[in-house]
Amino acid sequence: MGQAAKVLQLFKTLHRTRQRVFKNDTRALEAARIKINEEFKSNKSETSPKKIEELIKIGSDVELLLRTSVIQGIHTDHNTLKLVPRKELLIENVPYCDAPTQKQ
Questions:
Q1: From the CB of residue 29, how many other CB atoms can be counted at a distance below 10 Å?
Q2: Per-position DSSP letters for 9-22, written without gaps between them
Q3: What is the pLDDT of residues 36-73, one digit of tens each?
Q4: Which of 33, 55, 74, 93 has the fewest Cβ atoms within 10 angstroms?
Q5: Distance (Å, whole) CA 69 – CA 87
Q6: What is the DSSP string of 52-90?
Q7: Where in the chain are the domains?
Q8: Are 14 and 59 in contact (CB under 8 A)?
Q9: Bridge partner list, 75
Q10: How far, in Å, CA of 39 to CA of 66, rounded?
Q11: 3-state SS class at 10
Q12: Could you give the angle at the alpha carbon of 64 between the alpha carbons of 59 and 69, nearest 5°?
């Protein structure tokens, strides 16, 4: 896949992730849209293949971070915040073990 195609795919992936992560939060959706577009526009004239690959890696890392680490919170009261995790963030609870067994 050519670099231009990778950049376009990353751009689309970031916007899809933004829509999933900040669903029903218009302020966050708009702020993320503006930030994504600004970052891509600011690097639009980049011609160095090495630098472009580096920027693609950074963008991919940001997408992964958004997808796996961001949880929405809704203010329900003056000092209360209700967390709304997405289904893909909920993982099976692994029981704690005081005496772990050694791998062989």
A1: 16
A2: HHHHHHHHHHHHHT
A3: 999 999 999 999 999 999 999 999 999 999 998 888 88
A4: 93
A5: 12
A6: HHHHHHHHHHHHHHHHHH--EEEEEETTEEEEE--GGG-
A7: 3-87
A8: yes
A9: 81
A10: 16
A11: helix
A12: 130
CA angle 76-78-80, nearest 5°? 50
pLDDT confidence tier of residue 28, bands split at 50, 70 and 90: very high
Write out the two tokens for 99. Answer: 């005496």
The number of CA neighbours under 13 Å toward the Cβ of 88 is: 9
Counted residue by residue, the chain has a size of 104
Spatial separation of the C-alpha atoms in residues 101 and 103, rounded to whole Å: 7
Could you tell me the two tokens for 28? 């966050």
Q: Helix, strand, or coil here: 14?
A: helix
